[in-house]
């Protein structure tokens, strides 16, 4: 599904990603870990196509298509979802209306008509029940006065409704409390299927007790220096990152 070859990227002229290779297949959950400043969020942003980042070398393929030239919006239409892509507060626009617009824009980009209101309501009902989201929450103004947990709930609801092919959840800097952790993990576990893939970015191993990854990659100074299975995350939790640096000589 996703194939990244020798990816180099910079921001404001400073090289951040220095040769990333990563392959993610449908049905897989990948965790990306690594110390602060190693480039995790940059990698997420580059995959999603955020404009501030310049790809200086290498390529990103989604389903055999080179997406490097596509704008963030077009990548979203192709099924790439990045958490916190829409963190803005919009007074007067409800959680539901926002997602309705996002879904219909995606459909329009594919040459489809708006989703019939009846189908939309059915989908909203199903997804919100699945994620145990209160009805009242759906009519609140987007992100206005949301607590940390509510922001997470909104994000996971957006993900559920948009049914992305590839969901990238960057949880590094948000200092997730147990409540938020459960919301995220629950959502991911309910939504993952053989047809989609998830990349979870986290500084801490704790989240991976709830979302069990198939593969774990460690990023250091813009490169993936080690890959393994969930055992690698446990070892990192117990021993930190220093042994990896010694092992790979960075
Ligand atoms: P991580 O998510 O692993 O903590 P980041 O990708 O956020 O790491 O950051 C990697 C490096 O890139 C850091 O040195 C950071 O300061 C720098 N960086 C990231 N985004 C920007 C930006 N928009 N402008 C300037 N520097 C940035
Ligand atoms: Mg950081
Ligand atoms: Mg980060």
TrEMBL record:
Residues 2-246 form the ABC transporter domain. Belongs to the ABC transporter superfamily. Ycf16 family. Keywords: ATP-binding, Nucleotide-binding. It comes from Winogradskyella epiphytica. PROSITE patterns: ABC_TRANSPORTER_2 (PS50893). Signal peptide: none annotated. It comes from the Bacteria. NCBIfam families: sufC (TIGR01978). Coiled coil: none annotated. PANTHER family: ABC TRANSPORTER I FAMILY MEMBER 6, CHLOROPLASTIC. This is Fe-S cluster assembly ATP-binding protein. One of its GO terms (molecular function) is ATP hydrolysis activity.
């Amino acid at each position: 599904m996703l194939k990244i070859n020798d990816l180099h990227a910079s921001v404001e002229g400073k090289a951040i990603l220095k040769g990333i290779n990563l392959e993610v297949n449908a049905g897989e959950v990948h965790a990306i870990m690594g110390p602060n400043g190693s480039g995790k969020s940059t990698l997420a942003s580059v995959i999603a196509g955020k404009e501030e980042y310049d790809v200086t070398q290498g390529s990103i393929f989604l389903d055999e298509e080179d997406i490097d030239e596509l704008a963030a919006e077009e990548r979203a239409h192709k099924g790439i979802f990045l958490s916190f892509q829409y963190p803005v507060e919009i007074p007067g626009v409800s959680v539901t209306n926002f997602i309705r617009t996002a879904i219909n824009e995606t459909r329009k980009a594919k040459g489809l008509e708006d989703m019939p209101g009846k189908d939309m309501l059915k989908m909203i009902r199903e997804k919100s029940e699945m994620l145990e989201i209160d009805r009242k929450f759906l009519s609140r103004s987007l992100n206005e006065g949301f607590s940390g947990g509510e922001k997470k709930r909104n994000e996971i609801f957006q993900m559920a409704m948009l049914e992305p092919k590839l969901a990238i959840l960057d949880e590094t800097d948000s200092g997730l409390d147990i409540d938020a952790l459960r919301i995220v993990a629950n959502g991911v576990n309910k939504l993952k299927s053989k047809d989609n893939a998830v990349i979870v970015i986290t500084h801490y191993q704790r989240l991976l007790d709830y979302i069990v990854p198939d593969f774990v990659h460690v990023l250091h100074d813009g490169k993936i220096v080690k890959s393994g299975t969930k055992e690698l995350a446990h070892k990192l939790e117990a021993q930190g990152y220093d042994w990896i640096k010694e092992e790979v000589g960075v």
